[in-house]
Amino acid sequence: MEDLLKLSITEISEKLDKKEVSSVELTKLVLEQIKLKDPEIKAFITVSEKEALEQAKEADMRISIGKRLSKLDGVPISLKDNILTKGIRTTAASKMLKDFVPAYDATIVERLKNAGAIIVGKTNLDAWAHGSSTENSDFFTTRNPHDLDRVPGGSSGGSCAAVASGMGFASFGTDTGGSIRQPAGFCSVVGLKPTYGRASRYGLVAMASSLDVPGPITKTAQDAAILLEIISGKDTKDSTIVSNKTFDSNLIAKSQKLKAGLRIGLPKEYFAKGLDPKIEEKVKDAVKILEGQGAKVKQISLPMTDYALAVYYIIQPAEVSSNLARYDGIRYGYSVTSNKRQVTSIKNLEELYLKNRGEAFGSEAKRRIMLGTYVLSSGYFDAYYKKAMKVRTLVIKDFEKAFKEVDVIITPTSPTLPFKIGEREKDPLSMYLADVYTVGANIAGITAVSIPCGFVEANRILHIANRDQNKNDKPYAISHKLPVGMQILGPQWSEELILSIADKYEKLIK
Amino acid sequence: MTKISKSEVEKIAELSKIHLTDNEKEKYSNELSSVLGYVEKLQKIKTDNVEETSQVTGLTNIYREDKVSNIWKADKDVKKNTKELLSNAKEKKGDYIKVKQMLG
User: Are the Cβ atoms of B71 and A321 closer than 8 angstroms?
Assistant: First the structure.
């Protein structure tokens, strides 16, 4: 049965159709896997066993009368815990929302439920999606299934670790600066950041509204396409959705060959100092495979790359400070008034706000709220925020120019391999640099996917206590493999093209 | 390089409505300075005739009919809805949320 957990949605869907396995059996299998694996990986904040089994029973009823709603009908998946689920606690991994139970579903959740998805639980993230490792979660750190001493990436680290270890066939994350793609690369799964305006943000715990997008985390490009089709399209509750854009996942399966004369650009700024040479080699090997199928590869330049991250660390905290202003602990969320002793010492509403927010926001949330407040404050607005909005235009132009020369751009998803837990926690700026290859797509609002492109050797140091004093006491290293992610970026609305390239690549290396 | 002093941190925290401990003030003075130092590189770029980007879809004015709609698929039972919505508030009195005195 273990093998079933390794299958893609496309494969498991066939088995459900042929009644080789039932949705209840599959759901129980996933729940057992969570019980077995999650104590060490810690991907889940909430497991919704009861609800999942109820949904699975309903799916089996539909299957028995031959009325499956979609390929996802009866398939167990998870959701990042900043996606609102009616009646199921949604925390954003924050102390502020620790016991928050939403009264409504996010639009994408509503659509997933209408397609018959079984939701087994809510996964860990950096609190409020602020971070690149899940170490900023106010609850606990998720571990990378490929090396438990390393981070799974973030902020959708719980979702990616869950998919990588068979705890659900797919997951959904949110991507503001790389939060789907970077952990997908670190955990060796597929992570798609859709074009901004493709999928509704209604019911996501908002981080930076001009950058946020929800997207699928899967085992294959084909699965990502199936899930994108389900969640995308017009939504009266999110007026930033471009309503005439539709997406048909069947087109990807139909195209057997790489697009004739496909032009791939490799930006020199991404293959530069700071990139781990082992990662560079893997990504270039993957590009060679595509070249062998007729793709034309050329070096391009995205001169604004270095500035995109600076733009991101102004615009993003500015929008964060505005979005997190709503959390005051009055209508919902953490409040010091739960503690009777504190209550009597608080004189007025202002003081209650200060206390609630001071106690419930973690250090990264505070850092971003204050950074955002600073760059938006009178006297600094022009120098920081306005300047960043102008440079954002230049970053967009960079990509527009590049996409005149090439159809897609290929880069590593991250300059480094998954780093060790605790390694970057002390220095916020070094953590911010983890996003350097991914923020560009959010700044420009384009689409990008991270796909696995192999593993490289990394040394793992083992310290053995109580070793013989007379012997050489150097810690010894055993070789150990860590995943590498490759990012394919395309213009706005080019999901079909980038997923189709990812799909062909997967098939070529099989 | 921009240096955010402790008193500036206090001012920003007040605007952000966040109570900080003394240790935190010290910590954020260093950390905010370091991030602001990093983003300062944008000043090197000429942007005299560049327009600002505040959104990327190019959409303008999305209208809907001015009609009440049940977007939450709320229950017909109003009392049940009220109860659900109030369930997350910490201090309540009947169907109302209790707050502290606002003035004085």
Answer: no
